[in-house]
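I had to read the description of the data format several times before I understood it. The format is easy to grasp once an entry is in front of the reader. For illustration, here is how one protein appears when written out as sequence plus structure tokens:
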Amino acid sequence: VEWVEEYGFAVSDSRGKPIGFNLPWEKWEALKKGVGLDA
């Protein structure tokens, strides 16, 4: 599990989904691609 300090959530290295963070999946995908939360 990797901690992402800027957004305050941990990332599951098995599925890549946020743990304990209520971010919509589409936003999370955009964030991982470097688009940002406002995309």
About this structure: The chain has one domain: 2-32. The helical segments are 25-32. The two ends are 25 Å apart (CA to CA).
